Amino acid sequence: MSDQRTPAARLTKWLVSAPPLIFLLLFFAAPGLIMVLASFRYPGEFGGLAPLVADPGTLHGLTLETYRFFFSDFIYTEIFLKSLLVALATTLICLVMAYPLALLIARSPKRRRDLMVLLVILPFASNFLIRIYAWMILLGPQAALSLMLNGLLGLFGVAPVHLLFSPFAVLVAMVYVHLPFMVLPLYTNLERHDPALLDAAQDLGASAWQRFWRVTFPLSLPGIFSGSVLVFIPVLGMFAIPDILGGTRDMLIGNLIKEQFLGTRDWPFGSTLSIMLTLAVLLCVWIAARLGGRRPHHA
Amino acid sequence: MKRLLLAMLLWHAGTALADDVLHLYNWNNYISEETVQRFEKQCACRVVQDYYSDNEEMLAKLAAGATGYDILVPTGNALEALIRQKALRPLDKARLPNLKNINPAYLDTAFDPGNRYSVPYAYTLTLLGYNVEKMRELKLPTDTWAVIFEPEYLKKLKGRVTVLDSQRELLAAALKYLGYPANDTDEAHWKQARDLIIRAKPYWAAFNASSYIKELTIGDIWLVHGYSNDIFQANLDAQNARRGFTIASSIPREGAVLALDSMVLHQSGPRPDLALRFIDFMLDGKNSAELTNLIGSGNPNLDAMRYIKPEIAQNPAIFPDPQRRSRLEMLRDLDRTQRRILSRIWTEIKLR
């Protein structure tokens, strides 16, 4: 312990941690601050921002108008709630699908685990957009899946359904893209569990279900938490998937923000929406952390 | 060793010749490769192209400080913005003798009165594209926006229609159908258009600005609100794939949007002399016609008509008769307040 306090060690510590710190400061804190400032300004005529200082008579300076605009209409709150629901649904489906898989990998013989983990991350080898476009083909009306489903529905006299360009397509792709982000933290957590704990529980007469619910599950809560955060947050900001696979009512908050910066050229309102989104995310994570943080004490 | 030296010498001579470089910032796939090569030969220079896929992208890149482009090809409303930002060089028309080839109907627009900065390059129409066989089979009209907005027609097309994912374009179509100008900025009319769109929306498959070409080509979508060049491309693809059906386009009788793209000189361009030579070269009928023959774009060049393939030159959805042409409108830019109001209406449309 004592040699960590030598000047040389301290210097090393700073040298090692400085690059990531500077990176965060430059590419996270500074843009965040710029965004906060932008949200209090007027939009420029051709995009960008109106000047802070200019001749009287032209629009300039600071204003609260974007925040007033946000709260003047329930529609923006509505789109937030809708995006939160989609993110929540994606996270839950990912969790239900990833848990058994992570458990399977964690309990496999050591030499097979690496291969299985590799298979989980293999989809990252191809471009994200290409994988989304692949879903367009898989869900299209002439694809086997649609033909089979509609054939089945036809037997019961139900009108054919369109899978592509629907909320269903959006959810499928969201789950598909984000599943590895749930599997990996869960696996990392489950792999570290001491098998002796389960043996002990069994010796004390716990059934298979009890061993899972009272031993494995509570111990895996940190894994569930980090996996859920890794899925929930990117889904909340996603705009490409609803753009490509969504139908006529699948706009999410990410699409709205993107549109403010491109088509509408309204940077201040786009910044306001982004800040609201950040606040919403922080609130959700805080709630989840409190819930997740408490559980092990009760268990 | 000798040969290597010789090669290096030749290479060096080559680059010395190619020191004359024209930087062109253009739409994707918006000039024929042969045209570029011919110009390079004629001017003994090199053309370097950068591409954009919408005006906002181009404006954003320039706003972020991109420089060195001799020529840009903005659409009307972006042209207006560039002029107001004082980002363009006035044209020396004495060096553009071929300007006489341009149809006066496309000169002196509201975006650049007197064409001080811009010369028309090509135009696109926003219109109806459809699967000819399917529409005939369903006995649906193809010359009115009603087919995209009225449930009585749409119920036969449920899930087979896409509209552009563009606030301005879709609003313009709805306004035109309601009998208002495409550039109408009356909020009450916008709300009428919104209600029309929300009523039609359950029958549409998607708002789509990118993949509808493919969807038309493979026959999953039968009717689109889309751009004339894209629909032309969809038909070419369908024919090449021997799909057994035809994709056609038509200008609805209520009128439609015309987007005129023009060549302009950017202030930051180092070679205005080469740029003017290029513009005059592109105003030559033969060179101008090559683009139309490649992508089916509208052509404002009268001299080009004799070089354009007859099936394109005679297509009334690309070269409309004077009566239809009088119903075409170019979209003006909205101010920031209008943009914000329209964005809210658009959000409502998307959410309902």
Q: Largest chain interface and its two residue counts?
A: A-B, 39 and 38 residues
List unreliable stretches of 5+ residues of chain B: 12-17
User: What fold name stands as the CATH topology of chain A?
Assistant: MetI-like fold
Shape of chain B: globular
Helical stretch tally of chain B: 16
CATH fold field value of the largest domain in chain B: D-Maltodextrin-Binding Protein, domain 2
Report how far the terminal alpha carbons of chain A are from each other: 35 Å
Radius of gyration of chain B: 22 Å
Structural class of chain A: mainly alpha
Short description:
With 299 residues, chain A is mostly helical.
Describe this structure in words.
The complex is a heterodimer of chains A (299) and B (352). With 299 residues, chain A is mainly α. Chain A has a single domain, classed as MetI-like fold. Chain A has 13 helices and no strands. In chain A, helix 2 packs across helix 13, helix 3 packs across helix 10 and helix 8 packs antiparallel against helix 9. The radius of gyration of chain A is 25 Å and the shape is globular. The mean pLDDT of chain A is 90. By secondary structure, chain B is of the alpha/beta class. Chain B folds into 2 domains: 174 residues, D-Maltodextrin-Binding Protein, domain 2; 134 residues, 3-Layer(aba) Sandwich (D-Maltodextrin-Binding Protein, domain 2). In chain B, strands 1, 2, 3, 4, 5, 6, 7, 8, 9, 10 and 11 form an 11-stranded mixed sheet that branches. In chain B, strand 1, helix 2 and strand 2 form a beta-alpha-beta unit. In chain B, helix 9 runs parallel beside helix 16 and helix 10 packs parallel to helix 11. Chain B is globular and about 60 Å long. About 2% of the residues of chain B have low confidence. The interface between A and B is large, with 39 and 38 residues.
